[in-house]
């Protein structure tokens, strides 16, 4: 028979899967001999069975419940409905991963009309007895039968006002008795049956309600936000009540063993005298700082301080502890690893190592990798944020940061206004390469279309600039320079604030706090690097971004996207000249003009990279991205290139593709126009040879993108090797270089062994690989992916976190095959998944050498690689 219930002295901290965090830790505290009220835990398995099988507790659970209550009574000498020794219990949820406040709790369970009188007689405190009863009536009604909170609260508050009671504690025993009578009537009015007088019935209904609360909306949303699986269920803890509301020698509180905001090593908490747990949370009375307990109950305070130290030492982590004092005696109701800010997490981890409690390997597992972002970008001040008015909560957090500025609707306006000294936020339906200068000039970028790998998202992340994409509730009119949202309209120049951490947009200015890097942060990151196996490189091309990435200790550059180099106004003209040329000679002439820019760019990049490996990807995107769109643009370009507008229009029509992302891009461009890659390789190698003369040795790695067949690769490689040899001969010097490919089509994964014979390196382009594996457009999938994830058709957005079963499988096949034929091949990942902690865990299990991501994701990726390695070695 399955064991569904464990007494507290049968469990321990390692049993979180079955007993939930709260249950396992209550058991553990009991084992440590700490003052924990007696009780037992109904397992998560019972919850999963209940939720899957139907609407009542199984006979097995009911039978085991009765047995445990009997044993419980034997241990405590108390029973439900007893005349002399009344047993009252709390019923609390407790999942494996803590979900503070998301599920339900019932206190004082076991009271009824009859035994409440006996409790009053026995304690000689009728006020206390009826205070417990009114709380039970309300909590039971709310939790078990969803009676709206206001139904009880409105009456309670009116009653206090009418009878001139200043606060809850001032209500007399008679008053509370009257309130209980009315609460029972409210209960009947709402539930259509009387409050159950039989304690066992109360208990069974309460257990069922806690199981059901696993599936309430707020719990589901919390789990989605925190990546907690929906199928692990909650345990239920039944614990003998201790009463913080039994007079002024009693109380209740919550404390953290260290400050959860700053990490300071000082007890941090608050408590209320003569109160029960929910009073502290509800904020009806202002709790007192924990240190003042020393004045009121010095012995209890000392005992509590000692216990907090013991628990922290035992768990080797900062603890969040709930306690109750009943008539001068301390009881512990919960301990768990406390939630904390990223800043506090780093300080606590570093301090615990210095205090000898943690090893460096253990310390790196104590900070959530994705929380590191909080430390690298400015954030909104918490208080100001709470008071702000949101205009969109539908956007995707494409690039973190917090920014405030005046809205503009075109890149030109962004540039002009920024030059006039204004802080601007660029709002566009979507961005394109032409917008680059406007993006650089803006504090943040907001788009209504596009997902996490759209142009705006990728470019902004590279720049470390705040960006929110896919705000589908906003309607931008770039002509009228207005944006509509549900409830209003904003015009050019109006101020908004953009939260890149969660994708929310607000009206008006919100105060920000800037990022700062402590010595602890530097130490912590150094330990992470020491522990990690995978290297972390960056995806970057501008000197500013490259410097940022190297400041975060990137080991090299995993991807220079050369197309980003053509976005500046002058370069764009030359690029357009190349695309629109109709003869080889004209194209070569245009390329000769571009070459000088490319040499400058590569020289700057290699000067910064030096001996660190640097992958330069040859031109990749569809040509139409460089073409003018609007009539006005077309007119301008025709003038710049000195060609008739009609000819230009015809050429644009010729170049039009129905599916540009599947079209003439990547290596396909160079198969038709080899001179393009030849020019780029000459520029790369030319700059490397120049630097060599100055005594700067470089490690160039040339990447051919979007390869599907071995012949595509070998055809281009042969041409490029010849170009390099010719250049070496001209310059009378040699360069060491690698030549490889980006693996981003499913076919390339399947022929990886053949490709690997000719490649020095592979780098997985997971953005395109995901797009092509699913057949989901990376630019448009945002429109439906949230529906897929909400309805569990997809567990996670595969553009943000590796799809292990599909895309991950292709990568695994490719890595295995490639290593078999070319054990020395260097393998990396440079799509957005290269910076995602969960995906990195999988990459760390494969024979991959590095991951690469945008500069501001480098620290989080370094930490994730360290954590993956610790996990694996365990
Ligand atoms: C990719 O496809 O994963 C990649 C890194 O290239 P891009 O995002 O530039 O297409
Ligand atoms: Mg790609």
From TrEMBL:
EC numbers for this chain: 2.7.9.1
Residue stretches making up the PEP-utilising enzyme C-terminal domain: 517-868
Keywords attached to this entry: ATP-binding, Kinase, Magnesium, Metal-binding, Nucleotide-binding, Pyruvate, Transferase
Catalytic residues identified in the record: 455, 830
Domain PEP-utilising enzyme mobile: 422-503
One Gene Ontology molecular-function label: metal ion binding
Source organism superkingdom: Bacteria
Residue sites binding substrate per the record: 561, 617, 744, 765-768
Keyword flag Kinase: yes
A Pfam family per the record: PEP-utilizers
Top enzyme class: transferase
InterPro entries to which the protein is assigned, alphabetical: ATP_grasp_subdomain_1, PEP-util_enz_mobile_dom, PEP_util_AS, PEP_util_C, PEP_util_CS, Phosphohistidine_dom_sf, PPDK_AMP/ATP-bd, Pyruvate_phosphate_dikinase
Catalytic activity: pyruvate + phosphate + ATP = phosphoenolpyruvate + AMP + diphosphate + H(+)
Domain annotation Pyruvate phosphate dikinase AMP/ATP-binding: ranges: 58-296, 302-349
Transmembrane residue ranges: none
Cofactor: Mg(2+)
Binding site for Mg(2+): 744, 768
NCBIfam families documented for this protein: PRK05878.1, pyru_phos_dikin
Sequence similarity: Belongs to the PEP-utilizing enzyme family.
PANTHER family registered for this protein in UniProt: PHOSPHOENOLPYRUVATE DIKINASE-RELATED, PYRUVATE, PHOSPHATE DIKINASE 1, CHLOROPLASTIC
Protein name as catalogued: Pyruvate, phosphate dikinase
Organism of provenance: Staphylococcus pragensis
């Amino acid at each position: 028979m399955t064991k569904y219930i464990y007494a507290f002295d049968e469990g321990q901290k390692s049993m979180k899967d079955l007993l939930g965090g709260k249950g396992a830790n209550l058991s553990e505290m009991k084992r440590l001999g700490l003052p924990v009220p007696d009780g037992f835990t109904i397992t998560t398995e019972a919850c999963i069975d209940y939720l899957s099988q139907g609407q009542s507790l199984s006979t097995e659970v009911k039978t085991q419940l009765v047995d445990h209550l009997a044993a419980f009574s034997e241990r405590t000498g108390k029973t439900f409905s007893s005349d002399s020794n009344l047993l009252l219990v709390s019923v609390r949820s407790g999942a494996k991963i803590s979900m503070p406040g998301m599920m339900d709790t019932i206190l004082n369970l076991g009271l009824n009309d009859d035994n409440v009188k006996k409790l009053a007689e026995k304690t000689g405190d009728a006020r206390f007895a009826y205070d417990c009863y009114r709380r039970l009536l309300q909590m039971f009604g709310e939790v078990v039968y969803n009676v709206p909170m206001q139904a009880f609260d409105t009456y309670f508050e009116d009653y206090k006002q009418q009878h001139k009671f200043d606060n809850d504690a001032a209500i007399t025993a008679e008053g509370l008795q009257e309130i209980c009578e009315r609460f029972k009537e409210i209960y009947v009015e709402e539930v259509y049956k009387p409050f159950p007088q039989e304690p066992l019935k109360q208990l069974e209904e309460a257990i069922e309600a806690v199981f059901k609360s696993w599936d309430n909306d707020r719990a589901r949303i919390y789990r989605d936000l925190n990546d907690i699986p929906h199928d692990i269920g909650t345990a239920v803890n039944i614990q003998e009540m201790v009463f913080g509301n039994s007079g002024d020698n009693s109380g209740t509180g919550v404390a953290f063993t260290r400050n959860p905001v700053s990490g300071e090593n000082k007890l941090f908490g608050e408590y209320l005298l003569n109160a029960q747990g929910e009073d502290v949370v509800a904020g009806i009375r202002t709790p007192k700082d924990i240190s003042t307990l020393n004045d009121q109950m010095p012995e209890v305070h000392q005992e509590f301080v000692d216990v907090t130290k013991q628990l922290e030492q035992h768990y080797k982590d900062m603890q969040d502890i709930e306690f109750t004092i009943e008539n001068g005696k301390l009881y512990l109701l919960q301990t768990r690893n406390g939630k904390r800010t990223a800043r506090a997490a780093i300080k606590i981890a570093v301090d615990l190592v210095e205090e000898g409690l943690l090893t460096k390997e253990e310390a790196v597992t104590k900070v959530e990798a994705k929380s590191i972002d909080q430390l690298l970008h400015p954030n909104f001040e918490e208080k100001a944020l709470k008071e702000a008015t949101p205009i969109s909560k539908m956007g995707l957090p494409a690039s973190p940061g917090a920014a405030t500025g005046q809205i503009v609707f075109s890149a030109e306006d962004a540039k002009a206004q920024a030059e006039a000294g204004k802080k601007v936020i660029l709002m566009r339906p979507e961005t394109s390469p032409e917008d680059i200068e406007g993006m650089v000039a803006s504090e943040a970028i907001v788009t209504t279309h596009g997902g996490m790998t759209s142009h705006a998202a990728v470019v902004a992340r590279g720049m470390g600039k705040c960006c929110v994409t896919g705000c589908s509730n906003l309607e931008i009119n770039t002509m009228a320079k207005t944006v509509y949202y549900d409830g209003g309209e904003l015009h050019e120049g109006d101020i908004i604030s953009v939260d890149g951490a969660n994708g929310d947009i607000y009206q008006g200015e919100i105060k920000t706090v800037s990022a700062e890097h402590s010595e602890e942060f530097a130490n912590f990151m150094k330990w992470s690097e020491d522990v990690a196996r995978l290297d972390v490189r960056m995806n970057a091309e501008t000197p500013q971004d490259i410097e940022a990435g190297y400041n975060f200790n990137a080991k090299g550059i995993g991807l220079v996207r050369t197309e980003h180099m053509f976005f500046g106004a002058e370069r764009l003209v030359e690029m357009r000249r190349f695309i629109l040329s109709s003869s080889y000679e004209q194209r070569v002439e245009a390329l000769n003009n571009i070459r000088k820019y490319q040499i400058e760019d590569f020289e700057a990049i290699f000067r910064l990279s030096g001996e660190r490996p640097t992958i330069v990807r040859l031109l990749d995107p569809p040509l139409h991205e460089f073409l003018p769109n609007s009539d006005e643009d077309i007119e301008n370009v025709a003038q710049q290139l000195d060609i008739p507008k009609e000819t230009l229009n015809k050429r644009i029509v010729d170049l039009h593709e129905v599916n540009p992302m599947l079209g003439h891009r990547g290596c396909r461009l160079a198969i038709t126009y080899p001179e393009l890659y030849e020019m780029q390789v000459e520029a790369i190698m030319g700059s490397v040879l120049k630097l060599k003369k100055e005594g700067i040795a470089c490690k160039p790695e040339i990447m051919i993108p979007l390869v599907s067949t071995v012949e595509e690769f070998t055809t281009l490689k042969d041409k490029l090797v010849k170009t390099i040899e010719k250049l070496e001969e001209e310059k009378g010097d040699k360069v060491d270089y690698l030549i490889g490919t980006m693996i981003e089509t499913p076919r390339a994964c399947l022929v990886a062994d053949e490709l690997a014979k000719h490649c020095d390196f592979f780098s997985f382009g997971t953005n395109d690989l995901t797009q092509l594996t699913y057949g989901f457009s990376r630019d448009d999938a945002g429109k439906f992916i949230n529906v897929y994830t909400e309805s569990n058709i997809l567990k996670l957005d595969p553009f943000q976190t590796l799809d292990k079963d599909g895309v991950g499988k292709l990568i695994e096949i490719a890595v295995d095959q490639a290593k078999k034929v070319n054990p020395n091949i260097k393998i990396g990942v440079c799509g957005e998944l290269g910076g995602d902690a969960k995906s990195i865990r999988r990459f760390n299990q494969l024979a991959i050498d590095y991951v690469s991501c945008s500069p501001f994701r480098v620290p989080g990726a370094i930490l994730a690689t360290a954590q993956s390695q610790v996990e694996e070695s365990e």
